Amino acid sequence: MTLKLKNSLGGDLEEFLSLEPRKVRMYHCGPTVNQPIHIGKFRSYLLADVLRRHLERSGYEVLQVMNLTDVGHLNEFEEDVVEIAAGRAGGYAWELAENEMRLFHADRRALGIRGAHEYPKAREHVEEMIETIRLLEEAGATYVEGGNLYLDITRYEKLGCLCGSTPAELAELQDGSKTTEGAQKRNPLDIDLWRTDELHQMRWESPWGSGFPGWHVECVAMSRKYLGEHFDIHTGAEDNLNPHHEFEMAQAAVLAGEDDEREPLAHYWLHSGSVSVEGQAMSKSNGNIVPVRELLESGIRGRVVRAALLSEHYRDNLDFGEAALDKASEAVNVILGFRDHLSGQVSDDTGDPEASVAGWITDTDAAFTAALDEDLDYWKAISVVVKALSSLEAETVGSPAQALDALGDWDRVLGIL
């Protein structure tokens, strides 16, 4: 069986075919580092982690890049969220950003998320962003209004192909999401490329004045630097679909030109579903945002948080709470308990040499791999392992070392041990 992925671009379950034989280049939208990262965002990072782990276990050489947004991400009032958070804390934006990055990596490690090969910071790649904007300007796709530089979205005819909405529907949503600067644009969907702001803490000189880059151009510039103009996979959370990923595709299409028949930027686009908390949508207005750090500080094991956030298929909505944590804890305890028991058998050199586990390993491995090949069904895969462990007579395992090796191999994707 071969890996199949549900591609947000078109909505079909597609067989995965890498652009280069046995090599995969993948980009993931990482956190905006203005506050502790919540479980909804970490669920999308776990999607990226499971994807990479499964690809590597399947024999692919993977190059993984995840950005860190520390400048240019504006709220509904057109304010930079990192600078707003720094102002409330009475410090500088870059200091707050660095501290939140450090804490993000601590949380990531606690959840067993492998480090990406590159974590480009937006503020360290402004030169690349200016060059990207210059190329968009050379293509005749930009204009200046109110001192800011924008991309004319009408230059991209396929807007809405990722999220399944028409440009008119997207414009209505975007028009109602901003309160001030949006009025300066010719079209509410036109993309912020460069904001001039002499008072912004983090600002740079550019051909368009002193200011900072727009959020949507950042990922385009950084992904092209590390992965090239066209790469295999782009992932993110469901809320990245519109407008962020739509706008990334629009810029990439303009940069590629009309003669490039490839899909803009990436071939496969994957998005994790939303997260609710005990049946209620997770939101600021509901007051139920759950940072991963808060869970870890309460004593919940990182591997349990990991399994709980993966306890529904990544594309489905997840209701996070006691039920999900209990379900995850039970599975984790079975795996850890069996690991400890097998380790004891290996050290004691016990077990029945006639009781082979070769067939058990083969059958379990086939079901485990099939679950992951079917659009990364992590919970089905972990359930296969838990069921197999529970059915095996642990006291009579003839080859405990062999069984322990198999468990370690499956954990290359599960990330529990």
What key attributes describe this structure?
4-stranded antiparallel beta sheet, 417 residues, alpha/beta
Could you characterize the architecture of this molecule?
- This protein is α/β, with parallel strands linked by helices and 417 residues long.
- 44% of the residues lie in helices and 14% in strands.
- β11 and β12 form a beta hairpin.
- The radius of gyration is 23 Å and the shape is globular.
- The model has no long low-confidence stretch (mean pLDDT 92).
Helix content: 40-55%
Q: Give me the Rg, rounded.
A: 23 Å
Order of helices and strands: EEEHEHHHEEHEEHEHEEEHHEHHHH
- How much is the average pLDDT? 92
Shape summary: globular
Number-wise, the strands total 13
**Could you tell me how far the N terminus lies from the C terminus, measured between alpha carbons in angstroms?**
27 Å
Low-confidence stretches: none
| Largest sheet strand order | 4-3-9-10
Tally the helices: what do you get? 13
The secondary-structure class comes to alpha/beta
Biggest β-sheet strands, sense, barrel: 4 strands, parallel
Strand content: 5-15%
Task: Quickly describe the structure.
The protein has 417 residues and is an alpha/beta fold. Helices cover 44% and strands 14% of the residues.
Layout of strands and helices, then pairs:
Blueprint: E1 4-6, E2 13-15, E3 23-28, H1 39-57, E4 61-66, H2 81-89, H3 93-110, H4 126-138, E5 142-145, E6 148-151, H5 167-175, E7 191-196, E8 211-213, H6 215-227, E9 231-237, H7 241-256, E10 266-272, E11 275-277, E12 280-281, H8 292-297, H9 302-309, E13 318-320, H10 322-348, H11 358-373, H12 378-391, H13 400-414
Parallel strand pairs: 3-4, 3-9, 9-10, 11-13
Antiparallel strand pairs: 1-2, 5-6, 6-7, 7-8, 11-12
Helix pairs in contact: 1-13, 2-3, 4-6, 6-7, 9-10, 10-12, 10-13, 11-12, 11-13
